[in-house]
Amino acid sequence: MQHNGTPPRFGFLIDMDGVVYRGPELIPGADRFVGQLREREIPFLFLTNNSQRTRRDVVARLVRMGLDVEEEHVFTSAMATARFLAQQKPGGTAYVIGEGGLLTALHQYGYAVVDHDPDYVVVGEGRTFNLEMVEAAVRMILGGAKLIATNMDPNCPTQNGLRPGCGAMVAMLETATGVKAFSVGKPSPVMMRAARKELGLSTDETTMIGDTMETDILGGVQLGFHTVLVLSGGTRPDDLPRYAYRPEVVTESLADLAELMDRHDWRPPWHPAPVGRNGRTPATV
Ligand SMILES: [Mg+2]
Asked: Is 15 a residue of the active site?
């Protein structure tokens, strides 16, 4: 059923790694799911804790995999971090351990990247990490710079197994200085709420789809979003009893979720129709 030009009052925040792709491989059905969202004008945003790539880099990668997406569909922890710092201290300075995505985002939000006496030490993922940078960062933090992490993911899946994540690098700085980092990425409400606002939806209209309990599902649960766990990434059904919180829906992959949505005419079955003041749904008012 078409929506007669009225935008549907629900939308999706979608994790990428383990949901849309694994390494260089598209997870089968992800393209169909995204195609349906576009066709039906259902708002969505890809949400990644990886701060290495710019929005444009992420889009280029997704398009190469066959997805029909644009820059407005991508929200990274680098963007969330830069926006957060610009609100906290406009026009500040940062010493950055990270790469293009983070540097670009900070510049876009009016930050200068410096080597001495910064307001913040900001850590993201990258392959340039070395002990000289760690030593410089430790001295800056002990000298009063605030420690900001784009995310605290302990590791990231790659084609050849796991690589250390941003959280592992941040832990080194925390241990050396005795200072705890403030983290902006999922499950932090700073990023989750910013992404929801970017979608232009309310809490109850927002569904988080992810493969990781500690970030995607925890963040979604804490913010009061609807949550869908896909098993195409790092989580097995046997893992679920270990957690004190659970997703509302568990599916094998986005392909299975597309089938579920198909059966409900592309209204999320877990999303009750909002009830208007007169007891009818807005769609019938
Ligand atoms: Mg993931």
From this structure: yes
Q: How many Å lie between the centroid of ligand 1 and the Cα of residue 209? A: 9
Helix (H, G, I), strand (E, B) or coil at 57: helix
Cα separation of the two ends of the chain: 17
Catalytic, 57? Answer no
Residue showing tokens 């992810």: 210
pLDDT tens-place string over residues 123-152: 999 888 899 999 999 999 999 999 999 999
Q: pLDDT digit string (tens) for 163-202?
A: 899 999 999 999 999 999 999 999 999 999 999 999 999 9
- Residue 210 CA to ligand 1 center (angstroms) comes to 6
Separation of CA 247 and ligand 1 centre (Å): 15
> And the tokens for 278?
């007169």
Structure tokens at 242: 């270990």
CA distance 30 to 191: 23
Q: What pLDDT digit, counting tens, does each position of 2-53 carry?
A: 445 565 689 999 999 999 999 889 999 999 999 999 999 999 999 999 999 9
Partners of 210 in the beta sheet? 229
Structure tokens at 269: 């079955």
- 18: region left, alpha or beta (phi > 0 left; psi from -120 to 50 alpha): left
Q: Is the dihedral of CA 45, 46, 49, 51 positive or negative?
A: negative
Please tell me which residue in 17, 31, 119, 211 is annotated as part of the active site.
Answer: 17
Q: Distance, CA 24 to ligand 1 centroid (Å)?
A: 14
Ligand 1 center–CA 26 separation, angstroms: 13
